[in-house]
Specification:
alpha+beta, Helicase, Ruva Protein, domain 3, Rossmann fold, ABC transporter ATPase like fold
Amino acid sequence: MAKMYFESIAKHYGVKIKDVPIKKLPREFLEKILYGTGSETIDFEYESYAGIRKFTSPFEGVLPTLERRHNETKSQGMRDFYEMYMSNSDCPECHGTRLNKNSLAVKVGSKNIIELTDMQIVQIKDYLNSLVLGKKDAMIADQILKELNTRLQFLIDVGLDYLTLSRSAGSLSGGEAQRIRLATQIGSGLTGVLYILDEPSIGLHQRDNDKLIATLKKLRDLGNSVLVVEHDEDTMYAADQIIDIGPGAGVHGGYVMAQRYSRRSKKSGRFDYRRLFKW
């Protein structure tokens, strides 16, 4: 079918394509092949088992067809197939920033928005706190800086201080994406919400795990219910109630084996679950 399309378009524009290398074909013709003919119709003709078929229609173009099919398909296999013909490259004008020169000329201190978002979150917070502003600028920026600091601190509290704001969402791990949503929810200040998290501590350093637990407690203290599926000992000790599901995993489980409310130990200050597994 592809051969039929190309031969019919070549005939329409009077271009010889047989035994001609692509690099020697007219640029205008290649653009019609790649990007389509717009509203201009082409007389297509092809031979099938039922005989010669003819129809008249505009040609969508190879690239628009790939893009449309990639967006419409529900098959991951076909999506992977179309992505074989795609690649990421920086625009020669903006170099991947997606902003024009006028936008990049606006700076906060000595840095524009791209230079800021390329910094780690903890570095952005330190930079904003070190800004030296005049009296008028300080008054204008006061509430903005407070809001930025608060939201950056939420991300730091869930152990994401190493991320950059320019990082694409598709490159984040499942745990990172989950903790970003967690920080967003804390910032929203919602109450009466049930949050369910699946092992949010995976991959975290112990120091960051303590920050995560403190963040979960903030969500709880706002008036929400937080349900955490977790095997981390510190997370379990921090829980108000712990439920053990078993006796095995998957089809071998599903039963409540033990359930215990917390009791804080006077000696350690931690919640005591020593009697939990005596069923």
